[in-house]
Amino acid sequence: MAEDLVKVLADLKEEEALKIVADRLGADEEPLKILEDARRAMEIVGKRFADGEYFIPDLVYSGEILKGINELVKPKLAGAGETKRVGKIVFGTVAGDIHDIGKNIVVFMLDVNGFEVYDLGVDVPAQAFVDKIKESGAPIVGLSGFLSLAFDSMKETVEAIKAAGLRDKVKIMIGGGQMSDEIKKYTGADAYGQDAMAGVALAAKWSGASE
Amino acid sequence: MEKQWEEMTLEEKQESLFARWISPEGVKFVSPEAEKAYKERTTRFKNALQIKTKPDRVPVLLIPSFAPAYYSGLTPHDVMYNYDKITPAWKKFSLDFQPDSHGGCAVPSPGKFLDILDFKLYKWPGHGVSKDTTYQCIEGEYMRADEYDILINNPLYFFYYIWPSRVFGALEPIATLPHLSCVTEMYGVAFPFIPYGTPPIKAAYQALLEAGDEALKWIQVVGGFDVEMPALGFPAHQAGPTKAPFDVIGDTLRGTKGIMMDMYRQPDKLIEAMEILTPMFIQLGVDAAKNAGNPLIFMPLHKGADGFLSDDQYKKFYWPTLRKVIMGLVDEGCFPFIWAEGGYNSRLEVIRDLPKGKTAWLFDQTNMTKAKEALDGIACVAGNMPMDLLTVGTTQEAIDHTKRLIDTCGKNGGYIMANGAFFDEVRWENLRAIVDTVKEYGVYK
Ligand code: B12
Fold it and tell me: A2-78, superfamily in CATH?
């Protein structure tokens, strides 16, 4: 039955997935086991997205099904079981920009790939990034921006991180809408990622290197 | 005797609209030079668009966002709240950079109008975002998942009552208004009018009246620009916009997440709703073209770009009704000027399925060599002046890119130089260099 849940969730069969979860809970199964299966399914979803088999609608839908599963499981959950995380990342859409579709996709992909993501939301002032880096000790920062007005906000954010004496402690990646390698140079970030997969690859590379 | 519109073939309709554009009625050119420039420019565009005859050179058009305001040292807030600052800034922009056309000056929506109606769909300068940045859309499910039947069975009711009550705070009460079908016999006539006497509805109508006054003030400025620019020699590169039905629903009715859920949970309803929207969005373009005497209908495309949808999803959900809108416009003599925002590399094969020489495709981040190859002999291609070059590139890089574009896309005509994405503050010297390079390097011998 475990394999069933992994498969139907990865295949985005909403009704079947929810039914299996309800049945398993009804049979008094350990809720954490169900969540672990769901996590494995989401890993497959992430992989299919990376392979170009799934697209944004499929990711969005899988997230919605997962939400439904969580709602079923939550009441039965005693203590929160935490999965092992491979690295910490501070992420957000920079000041002045309120777009989050792209950011949410990258955060989703980082999450299913085992990263602990501190998502600061949208229109995030430079200082909020600095504060969160200090507080969490995360060695990686992701800046998302959608409009070209974000070019300058990104630059200012990188400068604020530098001014706080943290620049050599973190690797910074940028991405979103009109960003490019040229803009990376302009902002002083370390890398530009064209899509969510590029973000995951960069994070994996950097967290490997920093260990 | 001249043929009636209904008797014309689509080619004749298109030629008749182009003729009205090239020789506009009632325009008093400021000088013979301005008149000459106007004729040359419209003819240049027509030749590039229809891909039958090589134009004298590659045409160049600019589609700024708030760039003209920034260029004049004004903030977006300045021009949204002081309408008399719009025209001078937009005019200066055209006169200084000398592109081959103008795109109107409606980018700065009237701020006070938005205040009066309490517009919910966007944050704008001084109202949610700072005064020196542009407005931004707020994602949301302004139409609920269970409201497809209303949209499908009763689209006008939806757009007259439900939609405005969601996106304009001041109009919230109107969703409760009864319709007047019951007005058939004398004794019941007054019943449906009772709500109009109540304070909430009165306030809503008061707001509407004030908003109307404000819109009128604004259009006198914006409309004046549309009269003045042709007289100065600059034709309008669009009569008006329309959209792909998928984007109408995905952008602002259901939002990105909403429409993507609907693709799974209620695909048939989604498709039916897009079919219902199709004739409405054809009509929108056709009316604009006929009113303006200009065949060019602008179509910004959003959520069918690379990465948004798989091939199958694009072919099932996006392309069928987009193609119907395009064909509906073409049948009425319009010339759809389609702006493929983002990347469109994975869609090039699909969009080839169009009649020859009836559309233009403006690309943002698409590989232009491939785009030209795919659409050669089918459609005019345009665009790809990249945002990063405009904003942080060197002037030489901008010039080199411009020449490369002319080399790859301009070969046999059928190319229009244009920016790939709306722009705000850029390196003005780069923008100038691009336009000037087109004028020298883009000449066909
Ligand atoms: C949809 C859309 C809209 C919708 C938005 C609302 C909605 N409900 O969706 C509507 C129609 C309302 C709209 C309005 C406007 N828009 Co608009 N819009 C778009 C469009 C087509 C798609 C944006 C989108 O949703 N992307 C989806 C997400 C998934 O992509 P993404 O954010 O880039 O994220 C991906 C990657 O970039 C990456 N990524 C993202 N962040 C990060 C971070 C890191 C670290 C990494 C590694 C990777 C990464 O991963 C993501 C997934 O792969 C773009 C053009 C385009 N195709 O890009 C224009 C675009 C963004 N809009 C633009 C403009 C100008 C406007 C308007 C100002 C137009 C106007 N004059 O009225 C308004 C207001 C601005 C706004 N958007 O709020 C311009 C911006 C140009 C500029 N110079 O900044 C664009 C680029 C269009 C263009 N070609 O000119 N828009």
Answer: Methionine synthase domain (1.10.1240.10)
Q: Do B308 and A54 touch (CB under 8 A)?
A: no
ipTM score: 0.86
Chain A environment of B393 (Cβ under 8 Å): 182
Please say whether the structural domain A87-207 has been given the CATH code 3.40.50.280: yes
Q: What is the pTM of this model?
A: 0.93
Q: Which residues of A touch B260 (CB under 8 A)?
A: 56-57, 60-61
Nearest-by-Cβ selection for B424 from A98, A100, A149 = A149
3-state SS string for chain B: CCCCHHHCCHHHHHHHHHHHHHCCCCCCCCCHHHHHHHHHHHHHHHHHHHCCCCCCECCEECCECCHHHHHCCCCHHHHHHCHHHHHHHHHHHHHHHCCCCECCCCCCCCHHHHHHHCECCEEEECEEECCCCCCEECCCCCCCHHHHHHHHHCHHHHHHHHHHHHHEHHHHHHHHCCCHHHCCCHHHCCHHHHHHHCHHHHHHHHHHHHHHHHHHHHHHHHHHHHHHHHHCCCCECCCEECCCHHHHHHHHHCHHHHHHHHHHHCHHHHHHHHHHHHHHHHHHHHHHHHHHCCCEEEEEECCCCCCCCCHHHHHHHHHHHHHHHHHHHHHCCCEEEEEECCCCHHHHHHHCCCCCCCCEEEECCCCHHHHHHHHCCCCEEEECECHHHHHHCCHHHHHHHHHHHHHHHCECECEEEEECCCECCCCHHHHHHHHHHHHHHCECC
A 21-60 residues with CB < 8 A to B: 53-58, 60
- Write down the domain spans for chain A: 2-78, 87-207
What was the pLDDT predicted at A1? 57
Report whether pLDDT(A2) > 70: no
Which residues in chain B are closer than 8 Å to A55, comparing Cβ atoms? Answer: 307-310, 313
Q: What domains are defined for chain B?
A: 5-63+237-441 (3.20.20.210), 109-232 (no CATH)
Q: Is A96 on the interface with B (CB under 8 A)?
A: yes
Averaged pLDDT, groups of 10, chain B, 445 residues long: 85 96 95 97 97 96 96 97 96 97 96 97 93 92 97 95 96 90 86 93 97 96 92 97 98 96 97 98 97 97 95 97 98 98 96 97 96 96 90 94 95 93 94 96 93
A97 has a chain B CB within 8 A of its CB = yes
Distance B354 CA to ligand 1 centre (A): 27
Q: pLDDT tens-digit profile of B149-194?
A: 999 999 999 999 999 999 999 999 999 888 888 888 888 899 999 9
